[in-house]
Automatic annotation (TrEMBL), chain A:
GO terms, molecular function: deoxyribose-phosphate aldolase activity
Name under which the protein is recorded: Deoxyribose-phosphate aldolase
Reactions that this protein is recorded to catalyse: 2-deoxy-D-ribose 5-phosphate = D-glyceraldehyde 3-phosphate + acetaldehyde
Keyword Transferase: no
Highest taxon of source: Bacteria
PANTHER family documented for this protein: DEOXYRIBOSE-PHOSPHATE ALDOLASE
UniProt keyword Ribosomal protein, yes or no: no
EC number: 4.1.2.4
UniProt family annotation: Belongs to the DeoC/FbaB aldolase family. DeoC type 2 subfamily.
CDD domains reported in the protein's UniProt record: DeoC
TrEMBL record, chain B:
Aldehyde dehydrogenase domain segment(s): 25-257
Pfam families in the record: Aldedh (PF00171)
NAD among keywords: no
Annotated keywords: Oxidoreductase
Protein name as annotated: Aldehyde dehydrogenase family protein
Organism for this UniProt entry: Streptomyces spinosisporus
């Protein structure tokens, strides 16, 4: 695992010294060639992944899923069921790997923690007034502390899109730094940009760098609560950002596309993006995750198809 | 200037999920008439087309099985209306595919249209015939009602490319099932054209999906497919080969199987009876307590 290279990190410390230096740095990032980006993402989506490579990709994708339930109607029973599914996704086939984590609202963290106890599955909790992110900083920090105290291994925070779009990068930076501090060493921090609300690819690139400069352990596309969620293009852009960030500072940051990834085919396309952009170092659930719920069922059905040669159906996976 | 006009050839395509895709594999095969003259190139479907068709049929099942029987009857009648308007095309295709005279082909098409009307009438009557109240020894209201079994794979008859086809599709969808149809391998043109008719008949996309290609190639993964609830082997042939193999594959998830009948015993022109509808129904029985029976022996 790469370590901090002090001199490079130092170079970027200057960037966050003041609002003005931060703004100058973020606006000095090269503009995104939107057509080129989308063409690149589309061309990488045409790779044919078959047989043993497909089996490997499916198992890898299952191990990268953050199995998510973020509904107002979540009950302890539903969270327990989700936890059981995360630990053993396919009860009929013990070779299926567990997922990376379950992702729940803060009040469900103790329930989730109990449900996955004794396994490698982590508990991630959204915090900071998810999904709008519209609350005073003190409330957001209290939200985070509660979740961490309840045992969350990972915190998914949302940035203040209003402040970001208004150009108040300093405020966003400060918030992320404060939340990171609240997470302490106990929890890894995922920063959600809600790319569907950032309007332009340039903004997504700026947000990615801003998040990484502020100490994010993961940068995440979206909450899954708006119309446009993770797309291959915006994920590719974020993968380029983490690659370049590591090249400059030596610090590796993870990426998590979330929302709208429903089929194994889509998931495998994302894995191709990871391998071709960030590289093999990211092909691990410590550095890449899928925020999804229905994706897991499709992965399991594909897995059953590969194992038995027969097409499987929704009757053979859990309804959740 | 010459008065000869360039012919406009028709590109026959599959009908899956209300759309007209080419085969995922990009393959086609040549269809000829009885004498071997070329008629058209049609898609040679792969197992992935079959998989997509099952997904489309499953997606359509909720809406179609949930529609009122009366509404399904209206839609089936609409199919007959639409066919009536395109009769000429079907007469030509049937005549070419089956080597019939114009007059005989017209009679076949008429019979097929009448078959749609016949089944349209059955949609809201089949429940009265095969369901109803059951007399039971206890204070219960006991009701049985037939429900559609789900996604049904239909291997269309190989010889009767249109009347036989309609006679196997209509009963399946009349009761609320959705269908994945494998068209006659040698004469798929009427089936593919029927897809165009269905698309314009208020039939929701995905209720009927039509695939053309090698019956054995497409039917094998479909028979083993875990998300298919039943299979009609009308076009599998009666020899022990394919039909038996498919039946074994279908047993894995306990699919309902309608075995093929010996070819010379099938008279597609005869009035069919309800067998093809009841073959793909599940009976749901509800026991409802009525409370203590009064002195009169009944609380009603």
């Amino acid at each position: 695992m790469p370590t901090n290279a002090p001199s490079a990190a130092h170079a970027l410390t200057d960037v966050t010294a003041s609002d003005r230096t931060l703004r100058r740095f973020l606006h000095g990032l090269p503009g995104v060639d939107a057509v080129g980006l989308e063409a690149r993402a589309a061309s990488l989506g045409t790779r044919s992944i078959k047989t043993t490579a497909k089996a490997y990709a499916i198992d890898l994708a299952i191990s990268m899923v953050d199995l998510t339930t973020l509904e107002g109607a979540d009950t302890p029973g539903k969270v327990r069921a989700l936890g059981a599914k995360a630990v053993r996704p396919d009860p009929t086939d013990r070779t299926a790997p567990p997922t990376a984590a379950v992702c729940v609202y803060p009040d469900m963290v103790p329930v989730a923690k109990e449900a996955v106890a004794g396994s490698t599955v982590k508990v991630a909790s959204v915090a900071t007034a998810f999904p709008a992110g519209r609350a005073p900083l003190s409330v957001k920090l209290a939200d985070v502390r509660e979740a961490v105290a309840a045992g969350a291994d990972e915190i998914d925070m949302v940035i203040d899109r209003g402040a970001f779009l208004a150009g108040d990068y300093g405020k966003v930076h400060e918030e992320i730094t404060a939340v990171k501090e609240a997470c302490g060493t106990a929890a890894r921090l995922k920063v959600i940009f809600e790319t569907g609300e950032l309007s332009t690819y340039d903004n997504i690139r700026r947000a990615s760098w801003l998040g990484m400069l502020a100490g994010a352990d993961f940068i995440k596309t979206s909450t899954g609560k708006v119309a446009v969620n993770a797309t291959p293009a915006n994920t590719l852009l974020m993968l380029e950002a983490v690659r370049d960030f590591r090249a400059q500072t030596g610090v590796q940051v993870g990426v998590k596309p979330a929302g709208g990834i429903r089929t194994s085919k889509d998931a495998i396309k994302f894995l191709v993006l990871v391998n071709e952009t960030a590289g093999e170092d990211w092909l691990d659930n410590h550095w890449f995750r899928f925020g999804a719920s229905s994706l897991l069922n499709d992965l399991l059905m594909q897995r059953q198809k590969l194992a038995t040669g027969r097409y499987s159906g929704p009757d053979y996976v859990t309804v959740d | 200037m010459s008065d000869t006009r360039l012919s406009v050839f028709k590109t026959y395509k599959l009908y899956v999920g209300g759309k007209f895709p080419r085969s995922e594999s990009g393959r086609v095969y040549e269809v000829t008439d009885k004498k071997g003259n070329w008629l058209a190139n049609v898609p040679l479907s792969s197992r992935k087309d079959a998989r997509d068709a099952v997904v489309a049929a499953r997606k359509a099942f909720g809406g179609w099985s949930g529609a009122t029987a009366y509404n399904r009857g209206q839609v089936l009648y609409r199919v007959a209306e639409m066919l009536e308007g395109r009769k000429e095309q079907f007469v030509r295709e049937v005549a070419e595919s089956e080597g019939l005279s114009k007059a005989k082909a017209a009679a076949v098409v008429d019979a097929a249209i009448d078959r749609w009307v016949w089944y349209a009438g059955w949609t809201d009557k089949i429940a009265q015939v095969v369901g109803g109240g059951n007399p039971v020894a206890g204070p219960f209201f006991n009701l049985s009602s037939p429900e559609p079994t789900g996604v049904v794979v239909v291997l269309a008859p190989q010889e009767s490319s249109f009347l036989g086809l309609v006679s196997v599709i209509a009963p399946v969808i009349a009761t609320g099932n959705t269908a994945v149809v494998v068209a006659s391998e040698r004469a798929p043109l009427p089936a593919l054209s029927l897809g165009e008719v269905l698309a314009t008949s208020d039939l929701p996309g995905g209720v009927v999906n039509v695939l053309s290609g090698r019956t054995a190639e497409i039917a094998t993964p479909l028979a083993a497919h875990q998300d298919v609830n039943a299979i009609d082997l009308a076009g599998a042939g009666t020899d022990d080969g394919l039909a038996k193999e498919l039946e074994i594959a279908a047993a894995d998830n306990l699919k309902r199987v309608l075995r093929p009948q010996p070819v010379d015993e099938v008279d597609w022109a005869a009035t069919p009876g309800t067998d093809r509808m009841t073959a793909f129904l599940e009976t749901k029985t509800v026991w409802h307590p009525t409370g203590a029976l009064g002195a009169s022996g009944s609380s009603y």
